[in-house]
Amino acid sequence: MEKVVLITGGSSGIGYATAELLARNGYKVYAGARRIEKMEPLKKFGVIPISLDVTYQESAEAAVDKVISSEGRIDVLFNNAGYGSYGPIETVSLEEAQLQMDVNVIGVARMTQLVLPYMRKQKSGRILITSSVGGKVTSYLGGWYHVSKFAVEALGNSIRMDVERFGIKVSIIEPSGVLTEWGVIAADHLEEAGKGTTYEEECHKVAQYYRKGYTAGKQNATFNSSETLAKLVRKAIEAEHPKTRYQDSALAKMSILMSKLCSDKFLDNMMKNTVLK
Q1: Left, alpha or beta for 72 (phi > 0: left; psi -120 to 50: alpha)?
Q2: pTM
């Protein structure tokens, strides 16, 4: 029996690449996103696009109901929807902060709550969550993005412990740099957050650093492709005994190790010097 997968944030980047890869390899894939038109090309691989906004309960319920009514089960939930909103804590509006938390954290909780009753009934299931190295290490002017990803790490830990006895396994994906539109979006948010403030010069410099990195990423060994991350997600899904966390590169593993071994002040200076040089 083919496994049924529900992916959030399926219109671009990691979610899109994972939907294609899994569909090509015999999975029944439902890809959800607000921009449903962006997922039309996935239909040729057998992916079923569905409208989904993880910040709205009605939208999330409708997406899960669609999968259950069609398939009768959900074997894998890949909580991938998210975005990057950088900027100084002082200048970013609390409305923007709330949205960042609603998408990156509450959205994960909402989808998980809706899917878990079916997985418990099945006595099996896999839940994967896209976090980030930024859930362990804070970059300069990363603001609410890091707050959300640190929260995602704790949320994933809690879900894992809650559901282990039901045969449901939870893994957190911790990428470093990935060639998606995320980097440019984060840079735009950062530039906007700094305009007309005492942080303007630093915000501009850091935004330029990210734009340069994400547009020249194909020549930069520190960046991975969405396809590479999709393979990592598939590995986590298919592992008999999946790890609780998967990093996509030696850089990611090294960064997390440094967060454990180095002092806060050392990490602060390193992060600032990296993006301001």
Answers
A1: left
A2: 0.92
Tell me which of 3, 11, 132, 210 is the catalytic residue.
Answer: 11
CB 67 within 8 A of CB 78: no
214 a catalytic residue: no
- The per-residue pLDDT for 248 is 79
Q: Which of 28, 30, 86, 131 is catalytic?
A: 131
Which of 28, 136, 149, 169 is catalytic? The answer is: 149
Do residues 187 and 207 make contact, with C-beta atoms less than 8 angstroms apart?
Answer: yes
Instruction: State the angle between helix axes of 226-238 and 13-24 in degrees (0 to 180), rounded to the nearest 10.
Output: 50
Annotation marks residue 145 as catalytic = yes
Torsion of CA 216, 185, 45, 119, to 10 degrees: 130
H/E run at residue 178: strand 177-178
> Among this protein's residues, is 209 annotated catalytic?
no
As given in the structure block, the two tokens for residue 168 are: 């449901």
- Edge to edge, what strands does the sheet with 4-8 contain? 48-51, 28-33, 4-8, 76-79, 125-130, 168-174, 245-247
Q: Which of 27, 86, 140, 145 is catalytic?
A: 145
Of the listed ranges 97-101, 185-189, 199-203, 269-273, the least confidently predicted one is 185-189
Is residue 242 within 8 Å of residue 129, measured between CB atoms? no
